[in-house]
Specification:
313 residues; alpha/beta; Rossmann fold; Alpha-Beta Plaits; six-stranded mixed sheet; four-stranded antiparallel sheet; binds adenosine-5'-triphosphate
């Protein structure tokens, strides 16, 4: 009973403004990556605008890391292309790399050096003018070998490394994984402050609460394809209302469906649960057929929206 309202892969007008103004920091066009027969991402098309925090949302295996690794030039696309800071991903130069900060999903390399040595190394590549300020924000045992770091400390070190050369664009793959709540909040504050300075951020996550806290827009990816691209308010508005009904009768949930109802289910507490996006007259017609003992109408939450895309999969 999952609707296909968002079922068609979303096609944005990526690049449409590029002839009249600066190109978007990230513009992706029909980007496809197969690992042999396994689909990583397929036909991704969207743009991340300058100065926004863009949440790239999807469950494990949806294709977020593949898309990010393609953007960073770490993987070669099967077809399609993307521009990052105006440069095609397959032809990027060092000068562009120096304007990007990257937080990988799994920060485990360079085990045998200390945190300080690791940062020194990256400083020679791109600079480190913000190192001290970031170490205050994300304190780590800088003189100890990285191999002895806890997961959270590795992640904090990765954050210091990603931000310390003051990049224009941050690309982050599940950056809060392993962070304690204090460090998570420090990151949210930093992201919002950076956004206000005009920095652009793309980050992948499956943590809905952080999407709500920091993201301006969100792209939802499912099975390698983009299925929604909206600002969060619009996404919620488009996703309709939850109508919960207690009926004297016991009709099968599908009997309550009408044009404008995305889904109809029976909750464990015996209430019918409809997701209604439009045609509230249709709802009134349905109600007219039964004895309604109770009725509640709620706004959809981001969790509800997510479940509409992923429920049952
Ligand atoms: N190196 C690889 N070789 C083969 N298949 C891969 C490889 N990397 C990813 N895949 C497959 O590509 C698909 C997308 O995986 P990807 O890691 O991009 O998803 P994800 O959304 O980042 O997931 P997660 O949240 O678990 O990191 C999955 O089916 C995955 O098994």
């Amino acid at each position: 009973m999952i609707s296909d309202t968002f079922g068609e892969p979303y096609k944005s007008l990526a690049g449409v403004h590029s002839s009249v103004s600066a190109p978007e920091p990230i513009a992706i066009e029909e980007l496809t990556k197969y690992y042999g027969d396994v689909r990583g991402v397929e036909d991704l098309t969207f743009a991340v605008e300058s100065g926004e925090i863009f949440g790239f949302l999807g469950p494990n295996g949806a294709g977020k890391s593949t898309a990010i690794r393609l953007l960073l030039g770490l993987l070669k696309p099967t077809s399609g292309t993307a521009q990052v800071l105006g440069h095609t991903i397959t032809e990027r130069t060092r000068s562009v790399e120096g304007r990007i900060g990257y937080v990988p999903g799994d920060a485990t390399v360079y085990e045998n050096v200390t945190g300080a040595e690791l940062l020194d190394y990256f400083a020679t590549l791109s600079g480190d003018e913000r190192r001290e300020e970031l170490l205050d924000r994300f304190p780590v045992p800088i003189d100890r070998a990285v191999k002895n770091y806890s997961r959270g400390n590795r992640q904090k070190l990765a954050l210091v490394q990603a931000f310390m050369h003051d990049p224009d664009l941050l690309i982050m793959d599940e950056p809060t994984a392993g962070l304690d709540p204090l460090a998570q909040n420090a990151l949210y504050e930093l992201l919002l402050a950076e956004r206000d300075r005009g920095v652009t951020v793309l980050f992948s996550t499956h943590v809905l609460s952080e999407v709500r806290k920091v993201c301006d827009r969100v792209g939802i990816i499912r099975d390698g394809r983009l299925v929604a691209l909206e600002n969060i308010g619009e996404l919620l508005a488009k996703s309709g209302k939850i109508v919960r009904l207690d009926l004297a009768e016991d009709p099968p949930p599908d009997d309550l469906l009408f044009d404008g109802a995305l889904s109809s289910d029976l909750d464990p507490d015996g209430y019918y649960r409809l997701v209604v996006t439009e045609n509230f007259d249709g709802l009134v017609d349905v109600l007219d057929r039964y004895s309604v003992l109770d009725l509640e109408v709620e706004e959809t939450s981001l969790e509800d929206v997510f479940m509409e895309f992923y429920g049952g999969t």
